[in-house]
Amino acid sequence: MKRLQEVHGGVYLVGSPELTAPEDCCVYLLDLGDLVLIDAGAGRSAAAILENVASLGLRQKPISAVVATHCHIDHVGGIPKIRERTGCQVIAHKLDAEALESGDPVKTAAQWYNLNYPPTPVDYKLSEVREVLKFEKAELLCLHTPGHTPGSISIILDYDGKRVLFGQDIHGPFSDSFGSDLAAWRKSMEVLLGLQADILCEGHFGVYQPEEEVRRYIQNYLKMYAK
Q1: 134: which of 127, 176, 202, 224 lies 20 to 30 Å off by Cα?
Q2: Which of 85, 10, 7 is nearest to 45 (CA)?
Q3: Which regions of the chain are under pLDDT 70?
Q4: How many CB atoms lie within 10 A of CB 118?
Q5: Are 148 and 70 in contact (CB under 8 A)?
Q6: How far is CA 123 from CA 68, 79, 140, 181, 219, in A?
Q7: Which domain covers residue 198, as residue numbers?
Q8: pTM for this one?
């Protein structure tokens, strides 16, 4: 993960602790005709993420949207700067959007990182259990998968013969200060297992494939947090 990685056709790893900044989550770029970022790192690496995107030579397309998988600063801290630079739309689940729009230092986990998160508008708030975002070349299925936070989502991309699951922080951690819910998380993980994804793009530990490895990864955490 020390260099830009094409995970699958049109899916790239463009940010991570090794690529951009130690406090960053894994940041994924999707070329769906429109360019879409899944999460945005912790903030100080926003310029580096955009440079990585530009280096891919995707005909200088603008980033049209950033989808926040949840409200923690290591995933959303780069959104304000990336939005300012690109004019992109910000998308998040409504149950986590309030923390982004208020800049809540606890709910965003900004206190954990000794960082500040400025109140940031969310342009589109997901509200359904399953909701489809349509782009030029493909659709993203956003699944409400609460547990880590109340508004955590997972994202499915069916493209070029493979099912790619963006399951950021499905491993936890869990804290009352986040509004974590282990019972809800277990149900969410069972939903993800049922999707039979070929590739898992995880939030901190990189990419897992094929389907057997994706299943093993999720099942191992279910065992770790068994009742």
Answers
A1: 202
A2: 85
A3: 1-2, 59
A4: 12
A5: yes
A6: 11, 12, 17, 26, 35
A7: 5-224
A8: 0.96
Cβ atoms of residues 6 and 201 within 8 Å: no
Which distant-in-sequence residues (6+ apart) come within 8 Å of 77 by Cβ? 40, 41, 42, 43, 44, 46, 110, 113, 115, 117
| CATH number of domain containing 101 | 3.60.15.10
Give bridge partners of residue 96 from the DSSP assignment: none
Residue with tokens 């975002």, as numbered in its chain: 133
Residue 148 CB neighbour total at 10 angstroms? 28
Q: Tell me if the bond preceding 150 is cis, omega within 30° of 0.
A: no
Express each pLDDT in 59-73 by its tens digit.
Answer: 678 899 999 999 999
- Looking at the structure of the chain, the number of domains it has is 1
